[in-house]
Amino acid sequence: MAEPAAPRLLARNRRARxxxxxxxxxxxxxxxxxxxxxxxxxxxxxxTEAYVRIERGEAWLHGAHIQPYEFGNxxxxxxxxxxxxxxxxxxxxxxxxxxxxxxxxxxxLDLHLHRNRVxxxxxxxxxxxxxxKRFALAEREARRxxxxxxxxxxxxxx
Length: 158
Description:
This protein is α+β, with helices and mostly antiparallel strands and 158 residues long.
């Protein structure tokens, strides 16, 4: 039996991991129109400014930009509209309770295709302070230097 294909990445919010400490991740479905799905498959999405709000018992993705479908007709979608996220009731209640804590927010990490369905990877995040960001950059640079040194030694035959 064939193994299921890995999820195909459609858009990634690279800034989210830099700006927030990720506390928990959840995968949610997203309610889309047909032209939005076609546009996403062509790579027409941007979620760096996107955020999630829980309003009246439903989760909504705001600020995501999905380009209008190139071959769409007059019924093409609005690129900046809010889109409903599909979550189980218990997940929604858990996330709503967590977001009520001070400094905790819901951010989308990426949009991907999973078994021909568009999914959003959400994260509960707590905002990083400026010194946290500097520390993370310094740590990543140190790891890079170590990797370079190990690679150089290995190539030299040491």
